[in-house]
């Protein structure tokens, strides 16, 4: 018989409306708060995040729930958890943007959209649905809006950073957006904003705005940075790297261009902690975007920062930024070549301290499932050897997709992940990155149209 970690109390009533999900207060932890937080007898907490369906299967717009279990229970396939029935509702109008402390004892959240959008909260993990609010709340909405793109920097769980970019097409007096000639388009202005947040004392550290740009030649052709995300701190702690997506318009019409030459991957580099002196660096190895989506897209390892790119015409690459804060174009790690596929697209990845990583991807020919997105797969990656191998000990099917996947839990050389097709049950899996061994862990009980978005 399976052991069941499900708590007696249920949150089913809370799912009556999306509005109730959005308005859930930060002190609603689904049960009485113990005076002394429970601690795992060994190992660490593993927090599973679940995204409930809104209008369409796999959209994750019905709210986010989290549920924690010990690493020992997470490795036990006789354990079953049902976060959609018994999880803690994370305040957020849509899919919450979650982060956790390195030891798994704390979960950080900044609400995404709605009345609470931009509110930072943190919780002590006590097990099950019990997450105790700790510290004070602070809003970063005045700096980066109510739907911020944010990430936790790897500086001992001290700092978070959120970013935005705003753009405006500029024309001279000879043209207007409704009457544009080739000679009237000047460029597209790009203004970025960066805020850093003290995660310990819940306060704003710094905020800066900058006008940035690409080369004169690139901008004259209509290229501009249209989205930024995933700030990453370098090993020296004196530079912040921000991933970028480059878009293009037709200078003659100011309409979006969809068939154009993809530029070399770009990253914005700023001084840290001042957030001053922005520059843009460009890869000659990888092409496409570096901003990622929901999951952290770049990580510091062994003195350098390794970064995934997306929408590369030659398939996603893992790129390397060296200690000189420039792309190391001698490091050529093409995932199409390594995996033996075409059109590899990195969805989410995370290395352990040994430089070996678990990576979620799809590729050309991935069949579309119930969500309308391509089937996803996991691979084991070695940053030093530049190898990537599909993990075959994890089950896949057409409805298993990881487009919104947010996080992996790292414990030494082990990486915990969640596997469950949209609307179907699945399991936690644990990958020993050193040996490649895969352990099937606790069962994840799903609900119609919903999916799991990671372990923390």
Structure description:
The chain has 456 residues and is mostly beta strands. It has a domain at 1-95 and 113-134 and 404-456. The chain is built from six helices and 30 strands. The strands form seven sheets. The protein has a six-stranded mixed sheet, with no helix packed on it. Strands 5-3-2-30 form a four-stranded antiparallel sheet. The chain is globular, with a radius of gyration of 22 Å. The relative contact order is 0.13.
Helix content: under 10%
Tell me about the biggest sheet?
6 strands, mixed
Q: Helix tally?
A: 6
Shape: globular
Indicate the proportion of strand residues.
Answer: 35-45%
What is the radius of gyration computed over CA atoms, rounded to a whole number of angstroms?
22 Å
Unreliable residue stretches: 6-37
**Based on DSSP secondary structure assignment, what is the total number of beta strands?**
30
Give a concise summary.
The chain has 456 residues and is mainly beta.
Topology:
Elements: E1 3-4, H1 18-23, E2 45-51, E3 64-70, H2 71-74, E4 79-81, H3 83-86, E5 88-90, E6 97-100, E7 106-110, E8 119-127, E9 130-139, H4 141-144, E10 149-152, E11 159-171, E12 185-198, E13 203-212, H5 216-220, E14 223-233, E15 239-248, E16 264-271, E17 279-287, E18 298-301, E19 304-308, E20 317-321, E21 333-334, H6 335-339, E22 345-351, E23 356-362, E24 377-382, E25 387-390, E26 409-411, E27 414-419, E28 426-432, E29 438-444, E30 451-455
Parallel strand pairs: 1-4, 4-29
Antiparallel strand pairs: 2-3, 2-30, 3-5, 6-7, 7-8, 8-9, 10-11, 11-12, 12-13, 14-15, 15-16, 16-17, 18-19, 19-20, 20-21, 22-23, 23-24, 24-25, 26-27, 27-28, 28-29
């Amino acid at each position: 018989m399976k052991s069941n970690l499900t708590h007696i109390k249920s949150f089913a009533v809370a799912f009556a409306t999306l509005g109730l999900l959005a308005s859930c207060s930060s002190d609603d932890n689904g049960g009485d708060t113990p005076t002394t937080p429970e601690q795992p007898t060994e190992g660490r907490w593993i927090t599973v995040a679940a995204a409930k369906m809104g209008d369409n299967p796999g959209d994750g717009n019905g709210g986010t729930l989290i549920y924690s279990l010990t690493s020992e229970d997470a490795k036990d396939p006789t354990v079953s958890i049902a976060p959609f029935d018994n999880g803690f509702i994370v305040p957020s109008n849509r899919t919450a943007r979650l982060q956790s402390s390195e030891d798994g004892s704390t979960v950080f959240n900044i609400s995404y959209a709605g009345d609470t959008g931009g509110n930072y909260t943190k919780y002590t993990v006590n097990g099950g649905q019990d997450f105790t609010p700790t510290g004070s709340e602070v809003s970063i909405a005045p700096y980066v809006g109510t739907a911020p793109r944010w990430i936790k920097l790897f500086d001992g769980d001290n700092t978070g950073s959120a970013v935005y970019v705003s753009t405006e097409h500029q024309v001279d007096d000879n043209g207007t957006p409704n009457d544009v000639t080739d000679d009237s388009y000047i460029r597209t202005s790009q203004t970025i904003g960066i805020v850093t947040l003290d995660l310990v004392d819940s306060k704003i550290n710094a905020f800066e705005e900058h006008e940035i740009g690409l080369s004169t030649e690139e901008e004259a052709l209509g290229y501009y940075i249209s989205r930024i995300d995933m700030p990453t701190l370098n090993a020296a702690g004196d530079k912040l790297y921000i991933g970028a997506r480059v878009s293009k318009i037709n200078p003659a019409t100011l309409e979006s261009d969809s068939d154009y030459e993809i530029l070399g991957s770009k990253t914005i580099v700023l001084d840290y902690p001042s957030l001053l002196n922005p520059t843009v660096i460009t890869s000659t190895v990888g092409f496409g975007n570096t901003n990622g989506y929901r999951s952290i897209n770049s990580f510091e390892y062994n003195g350098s920062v390794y970064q995934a790119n997306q929408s590369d015409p030659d398939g996603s690459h893992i790129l390397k930024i060296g200690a000189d804060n420039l792309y190391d174009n001698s490091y050529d790690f093409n995932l199409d070549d390594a995996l033996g596929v075409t059109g590899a697209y990195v969805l989410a990845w995370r290395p352990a301290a040994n430089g070996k990583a678990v990576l979620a991807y799809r590729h050309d020919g991935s069949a579309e499932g119930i969500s309308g997105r391509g089937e996803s797969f996991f691979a084991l990656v070695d940053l030093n050897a530049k190898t990537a191998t599909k993990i075959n000990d994890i089950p896949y099917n057409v409805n298993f997709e990881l487009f919104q996947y947010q996080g992996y839990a790292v414990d030494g050389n082990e990486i915990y992940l969640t596997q469950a097709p949209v609307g179907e049950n699945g399991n936690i899996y644990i990958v020993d990155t050193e040996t490649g061994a895969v352990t099937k862990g606790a069962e994840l009980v799903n609900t119609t149209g919903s999916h799991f978005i990671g372990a923390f």
